Amino acid sequence: MVFHKLFSSTLGIGYIKGGGTIAAAVCGLCWYLAWHGAYPPVWPSIGITIVITFAGVWSSSMVEPIWGKDPSKVVIDEVAGMAIGLLFLPVSVTYLLCAFILFRFFDIVKPLYVRKMEELPSGWGIMMDDVLAGLYTNILLQAVVWFKLF
To answer: What phi and psi, each to the nearest 5 degrees, are found at residue 41?
Structure first.
């Protein structure tokens, strides 16, 4: 159970007030440090994102009976959503900040079926709203890249 508490809280970030925002920012910082100045390698970035997402479903399902429904301590969902928001984008401070702002907007406001995802059972409901928020973030930023808006 210690693993699930550590993993789902992203090494304890979930215990901090504003943990979701901090976890998304830490994800962006790690992404930047790993791959700044270029596009991230496709398969490693996809692989890492998939592992985080499915392990997040598993771990959040394990801690939900202890911490309650969609507990605020679980912030691995923000990490997964932010990683999805950054996939296939050039790694620069500008794109990272835009991804962070858009992701947090979609995660907090929960438009366009994002809130509906929370109705899924257990860890799926905890994770999928952030996955969809990350997907919306990525789609918007792909359009920015495609149209060379900056």
So the answer is: -60, 135
Model confidence pLDDT, tens digit, residues 107-118: 999 999 999 999
One-letter amino acid for residue 19 of the chain: G
State the DSSP code for 150: -
Dihedral of the alpha carbons of 80, 7, 22, 139, in degrees to the nearest 10? 0
Whether residue 127 contacts residue 60, with contact meaning beta carbons closer than 8 Å, is answered with: yes
**Can you tell me the distance from the alpha carbon of 145 to that of 14, in angstroms, rounded to the nearest whole number?**
32
Q: Cβ atoms within 10 A of the Cβ of 143, count?
A: 10
Structure tokens at 92: 């620069």
Number of H helices, E strands in the chain: 7, 0
pTM of the model: 0.96
Neighbour tally for 54: CB within 10 Å: 13
Cβ count within 10 A of residue 148: 6
Structural tokens at position 11 = 């090494």
Segment 76-80 mean pLDDT = 98
Are 36 and 94 spatial neighbours (Cβ–Cβ below 8 Å)? no
